[in-house]
Amino acid sequence: MEQKRVTLANGIELDVVDEGPRDGPALIFLHGFPESHRTWRHQIAHFSDRYRCVAPDQRGYRGSSKPQEVEAYAPAKLIGDVFLLADALGIEKFTIVGHDWGGAIAWGVALGGQHARVTRAIIANAPHPAVFQRLLYTNPVQRAASQYIRAFRDPANDDLIRAKGITGILKQEVNWDRPDNMPAEERAQLLKDWEDRDACFGMLNYYRASRMVVPTMDEPFELPEGYAPPPVPKLSIPTLVIWALDDLALPPENLEGLDELIDPLTIVQVPDCGHFVPWEAPDKVNAAMEEFLAATD
User: How confident is the model at residue 175 (pLDDT cuts 50, 70, 90)?
Assistant: First the structure.
């Protein structure tokens, strides 16, 4: 897939895939950590005959702008990039599609732009902000699975990252440094991308700038006194949540309570699939998206 350079009004430059009919309904795809626009390669190939498929390498990744300050990755700025990208491409309304960190940003885009600019949301294995924070406090499985975030945020690991790149901290914290279930050419490209030290810190700054609280395993499994859920509005645009059930980082408890936060909501569960569902189970993701888009067009 060819990319073009797009300069946003805030000065950030993004490398962007923009395929499909320019007058077709737009799908904006957001990748997560530690990948690229190619997270969505199967979906772009499937839908670009009818939809305008836009997929950036987000700030901090690959050839896109990689500011090194943590504050440059505040959620509001990452969400703002999406709307500014749409502006730069002349897209007024769009469906937002996100996975992992791209899904976290997509939640914010959908909540902030629903009805006015965002017509639908499709989220794959990315927790709703209100649900995720509650689980981090109360659910031992989710808290244990999220301890790596504490390490990603810890500047004591910066020397390791400078020495060994993102593979060093992935190996240390989650015993994973190679996407072995990925085709060889995709794996080789991803490992090459991870060599860029500015990109390594850009990726980690998503975690460092987030206000999400990740307690230690020694802290009580209960909501802290005076806890109030994040002040997010109810999402009232058609929303599809696709969830791979064998995700070691995000257990299916993240689906509980979504029906109270989103209406209308469609949930599609994908058994026997790990975290990277867009390319681990592309046919199932495409089928779920196809049915959802057809029903909401």
Answer: confident
